[in-house]
């Protein structure tokens, strides 16, 4: 009989190594897993619930919000506020973060959470996998209102990061800096159960993931690298396979399991890259590095970027170490 270890049991076991732990992080992860279960339920009956299609507003990104963007954002915000372990919440769907140290709020905690409540919105109506991404910091200041040093923390200072993929199954993957572990939701018992212990990303791979329609907008280095991917050379497993889902979480998770590389380089339309640093690139970069992979802008590690504003964007090249190294070699040469 396969023994079941739930997410909560796993965290308690992990925290046993920290006698001073007071269960705050356990409660924070419980809040996140509660919201993920609620989003899972809606995603899995999307066609039957009034949850498909556009919400009717544009968000701060200038994107048309989907109903599920707003649904997911509401439930993650509620769960994190009510969980009582946070002092700051920031979402892709809100122009400004919510500073819980200002004014009367639920019980205040020490965690700052940046999240993308629903990643891959363009795929919702076609029943393609979507996700949620979260990034967790501890406040630097001890009490009172948050200060600029709290917001200036680079990705290297995350205390935890994770994502949920709502696909053929719903899987929550996270790290606290001691490796990466994955948990699959068993809807029959309503628990995330350990399914991918000590997850590592293969050092090499033969899958590349990029929106090729942007080819003419890429730098010559990226164009040369993509030509390299297509050359016929059985000794280096080329041509590579091209896979592009259009949901970052789904493309990233595939590469975590099979090995591979995902690229969203700078384009004419997005000169600084399309993907957002604080709630897409930093959390996935933390996971990638903890799993033995790499994440770079092409010129520097994602985790070393100094954050300047909440919704700032960055180019992202992330995945198997040897494949990311090859892209950096092309960028260095061209
Ligand atoms: P979101 O749905 O949270 O706005 O993110 C969409 C992102 C990411 O999920 C995906 O990798 C990328 O947009 C796809 O962009 P293109 O459609 O330009 O390829
Ligand atoms: Mn969006
Ligand atoms: Mn996203
Ligand atoms: Mn989103």
Structure description:
There is one protein chain. Helix content is 30%, strand content 23%. It has helices at residues 7-15, 24-43, 67-83, 148-151, 220-230, 248-258, 277-290, 321-333, and strands spanning 54-58, 64-66, 86-91, 98-99, 111-119, 130-138, 160-166, 170-175, 180-186, 191-196, 207-209, 241-242, 261-264, 294-296, 316-319. The strands form three sheets. The chain has an eight-stranded mixed beta sheet, sandwiched between helices. It is globular and about 60 Å long. The N and C termini lie far apart (56 Å). Bound molecules: 2,5-anhydro-1,6-di-O-phosphono-D-glucitol and manganese (II) ion (MN) (3 copies). 2,5-anhydro-1,6-di-O-phosphono-D-glucitol binds next to strand 5.
Query: How would you write the strand order of the largest sheet?
Result: 4-3-5-6-7-8-9-10
Helical residue percent band: 25-40%
Molecules bound to protein: 2,5-anhydro-1,6-di-O-phosphono-D-glucitol, manganese (II) ion
Q: Structural class, from secondary structure content? A: alpha+beta
- The SSE order reads HHEEHEEEEHEEEEEHEHEHEEH
Main pleated-sheet profile = 8 strands, mixed
* Arithmetic mean pLDDT: 94
Using only CA atoms, what is the Rg?
A: 19 Å
Would you count the extended β strands for me?
15
Low-confidence stretches: none
Per the principal axes of the C-alpha atoms, what is the gross shape?
Answer: globular
Protein name: Fructose-1,6-bisphosphatase class 1
GO cellular component, one term: cytosol
Domain Fructose-1-6-bisphosphatase class I N-terminal: 6-197
GO molecular function, one term: fructose 1,6-bisphosphate 1-phosphatase activity
């Amino acid at each position: 009989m396969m023994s079941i270890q739930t997410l909560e049991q796993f965290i308690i076991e992990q925290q046993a190594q920290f006698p001073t732990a007071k269960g705050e992080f356990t409660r924070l992860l419980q809040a996140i897993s509660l919201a993920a279960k609620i989003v899972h339920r809606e995603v899995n009956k999307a066609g039957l619930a009034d949850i498909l299609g556009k919400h009717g507003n544009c968000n701060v990104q200038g994107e048309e919000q989907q109903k599920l963007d707003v649904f997911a954002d509401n439930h993650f915000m509620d769960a994190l506020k009510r969980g009582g372990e946070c002092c700051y919440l920031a979402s892709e769907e809100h122009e400004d973060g919510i500073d819980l140290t200002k004014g009367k709020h639920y019980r205040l905690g020490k965690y700052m959470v940046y999240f993308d409540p629903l990643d891959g919105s363009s795929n919702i109506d076609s029943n393609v996998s979507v996700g949620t991404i979260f990034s967790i910091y501890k406040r630097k200041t001890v009490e009172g209102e948050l200060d600029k040093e709290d917001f200036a923390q680079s990705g290297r200072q995350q205390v935890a990061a994770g994502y949920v993929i709502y696909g053929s199954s719903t899987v929550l993957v996270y790290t606290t800096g001691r490796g990466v572990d994955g948990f699959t939701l068993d809807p029959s018992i309503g628990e995330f159960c350990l399914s991918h212990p000590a997850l590592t990303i293969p050092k090499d791979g033969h899958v590349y993931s990029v929106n090729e329609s942007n080819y003419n907008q890429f730098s010559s280095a990226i164009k040369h690298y993509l030509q390299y991917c297509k050359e016929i050379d059985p000794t280096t497993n080329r041509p590579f396979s091209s896979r592009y889902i259009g949901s970052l979480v789904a493309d990233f998770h595939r590469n975590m399991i099979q090995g591979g590389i995902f690229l969203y380089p700078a384009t004419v339309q997005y000169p600084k890259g399309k993907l957002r640093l604080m709630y897409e690139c930093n959390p996935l970069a933390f996971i990638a590095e903890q799993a033995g992979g790499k994440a770079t802008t092409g010129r520097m590690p994602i985790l070393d970027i100094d954050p300047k504003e909440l919704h700032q964007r960055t180019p992202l090249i992330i995945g198997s170490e040897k494949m990311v190294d090859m892209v950096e070699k092309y960028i260095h040469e061209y």
